[in-house]
Amino acid sequence: MQHQYSKPLKNLPLHNTSGTKEMAITSQTDLLTQIRDLLSQPPDKERFRLLLHLINTSEDEAERRVGIAYAQTHLKAWPDAIRSATPYDCWDFLKERTQPGLPLARTMDFGDMYEVKIRYATWLPHLHTHTTVTGLSLEWNTIGAEDAQFLARSPLLKQVEWLDLGFSYITDKGLEALASSPYTHNIKHLNLEENRLDAPGIKALAHSTSITQLRSLDLSWNPLNLEGCQALSTSPHIKQLQRFKLNDTWPGVLAFSTLFRSPHLTALIHLEAEGNHIHTEGLTALSERHRPHLQHLSLHDNNIEDDGLFSFIRSNNTPALRYLDISSNPITPAGIHALTTLECPLETLHIGGTYCDRKSLQTLTTSPQMSALQALDLSHLEIAPKELCEVVHTMQLPALQKLDLSWNNLSDEDVEYLTRCPIISRLQQLELSLNKLTERGMNTLAQATSIQSLKVLELQNCEIGDRGLAALLDSPYLQQLEELELTSNELTHEGIARMCNTHLPALHTLDLSRNNIGDEGAKHIAESPLSIQLTKLYLTRNGITDRGAKALAQSPHLRQLKVLDIHDNALTEEGYFALAHSPYLHRDIVMVAISQLSGTTLKQRISQMATEETPPMNQDQRIQHLLTTRMC
Fold it and tell me: What is the pLDDT of residues 8-25, one digit of tens each?
């Protein structure tokens, strides 16, 4: 979950994503003027979080009341999803009371933060009267049956339209309580991904009159069976369902066929049923009903053969389809060829891991029926690399922006051929991961004028090494590159030192996971001017210790960073405390670091802070004394 970083009120810069001039908010400016300045700009989550910060830290109660009243009037035009608050914004952990700005929030994002039982026991009950919330996220918390029952009794749910309970250990009893709650009748979007739900819970949900407004339902990674699918298929309460996710539920072919034949699922716009082995019979059942609104269909890894695909295409029951994923299914060249007869303007097509050949691919990628295609996945194909390159060279896909050629045993010579293909110069995203590329291939890629439109380049598991990275970074044609994916490439601190002296003016996302950059590499990143522009940085499994974490924590260059993934390194609590105590890192990063600290460590550090930092503290009094010693 992502939560925004607030700096101390004095000289607090407003990060302006709209391109208008920056302003400085100072303690000398009255609260109402600051609020007016914020609300005069376009709606933005970061601005809303700053608004809450201003109100919550104001010491003038009368001024605060005027500011809240003004904000309430002018926030009516802001989308509820933007008016999002975290526990930190809602609850003062030091004074054990709700924050003054709480009534302005419409979405509460409490996901993946703390143990939910502690939260319920200490402060969530105080929010029950705040019944204007329309969105609530509690995902990645240990909720279980008891706490789900507690939540079901909460008036907090009265106006909630979006409820996220994914990965929360909810059992059938918990879902039964939510399904029978008098407060859940407004829910339109419900995420129950990866809980512990079986037939009793699914049946209770299907029979509940509280779900008649439901537009989106995610049941992925729950063990569905025939009984649960039958209950859903006969439920008249799911008639308005538009988004349905059933990935990796494994109910069996008969159960899925029963569900897909439901007369109540004709409003679907988005359907995901990946990894379920629905076979040809399941896709045939799906094809039997007219689904005029279906735009997104994802059927990855389902053991679907040609006959199922033929039935689907012949039915012509999905005229609005734009996204189709049939990757990792045993579809032969005949099935790939049949895709050219689809009577819908596909924009995204995934056929990686199928049994296509050169002829069927060329027929597909030169077909006028594919002229609207913007993204094409050709990863992990059983076709010779040279033949695949020839297919790319003959492509006639005028709208194509994204091409995935990962895991195809491509060599440096193949990359040289690809850079001369006309289609490459029109791409914004190119994926070459899991291919056998070396310094030579990177040098060829770097010198190709055809890559100058690329915004995303993925090179995972290519083993290019420091020299390959250096060759790539010598390119004068990566000025538009925004995201660079370099996971598992045998990079060391030497390669990172070279990267940190490179000018990539548009780069904001960098993934260096599963390399060996160590503390020296982390230090290079911390000291690099390139880091000033980064908003996302991934450093998992890099042999980084507390020393590297401290370098990152003390870097003023990382002020713009909103995501720092540093798990699976050699950090101890000392390293995590350095991150939690950083005056520069985004609050989201600080929150994650706090969650890694034990209560004993926090108490010791709080005592140390009290001695060393009196009176100055801030980054909001070191995140309210490290969230009051992680809520004791």
Answer: 222 233 333 333 333 334
